[in-house]
Every structure is written in C-alpha cells, then in structure tokens.
Amino acid sequence: MQTPAIPANEASRIAALYALNILDTAPEERFDRLTRLAKRVFNVPYSTISMIDDQRQWFKSIQGLSLCQTSRDISFCAHAILFDEILYVENALKDERFHDNPVVVGDPKIRFYAGCSLQVNGFKMGTFCVFDKKSRPFTPEDRQLLKDLATLAERELATPDHALAH
Fold first, then answer.
1. CB under 8 Å to 37, separation ≥6 — which residues?
2. Which pTM was predicted?
3. Which of these, 25, 109, 129, 153, could form a disulfide with 115 (CB 3.0-4.6 Å)?
4. Which three-class secondary structure state does DSSP give residue 112?
5. What's the topology of domain 29-148?
6. pLDDT tens by residue, 73-114
C-alpha cells in the first residue's frame, strides 16, 4: 500500500480547511442530497463528501456506510486531492497503490473508486467520490457528471451557514 503524498501547500491547505468550520459538524441535507443523487446516478453502493485534515479523512456526507472518518494513510481520497483531474481506479486489487489497502482486502472491499477533488478558496479540501465492491469502467460522461456534482458540493462548502437561513 502506498500512503498518499502530502501536498506542497499542506500547512496553508489545512489552515484554510479549519477556517471553513466544517470539520466535525452534523450531517446536513444540502450535502446528503448530493451523495444520495450520486449513489443513484452511478448505481454504486457508496458515495461520500470527505474532508482531508492532517490525520484523517472525515465524511461530511456518506451513503452506504456508517463511518464518520478513517485514517488518512488508507484514504483513496487523500490520493485524489493530489490531482487536478478525477482519480479513477477501475480495480483496486490491480492497482499498485491500493492492492493491499485494508479497505480493499477487508471491508468494505473497495474495487472501483472515482474521486474528484473539492476546491474551496484555492485549496483542495477533500473529495466527492463514488466507489463500489465491484470493478467497473468510468466513461467520459461519468467523469463529467462527477465533476458537476463536485462543483455543486464546492458551492455548498463555500456558502456560509448563516446565508442558508434566509
């Protein structure tokens, strides 16, 4: 298993993430509706909006699992924030980075993963991702749909809570 690299701008990225005041907040319908939609559109059992802090991957929204966080070192999403394009893994068992990862060899037995980084205030804070227990292709149309959903999630992350009350 390859642990994800640390972005060059990590200190600034972490400061910007904490400034969002989103970590460890309660679930919100505005995020949950996006992950429910992704789960349905892509016909996958799992969809998340995750934030990557210095030690963990924390889920602002998660469909299909009852976790609230995982260790950053086993996180596919911590790899995804290193890329400008979608990180797509057709079969994690055949990918050198992930083949022996605990979430691949053990539950939830991830095979397919597609994650789009979420940028807010110029920093990649986390990802919008979909994943499955079975290997699968990911078409150019799928990539565009995931980018579209990620853009909606980015807009929600950039919207202060008080602005939603009106």
1. 149
2. 0.93
3. 129
4. strand
5. Beta-Lactamase (3.30.450)
6. 999 999 999 999 999 999 999 999 999 999 999 999 999 999
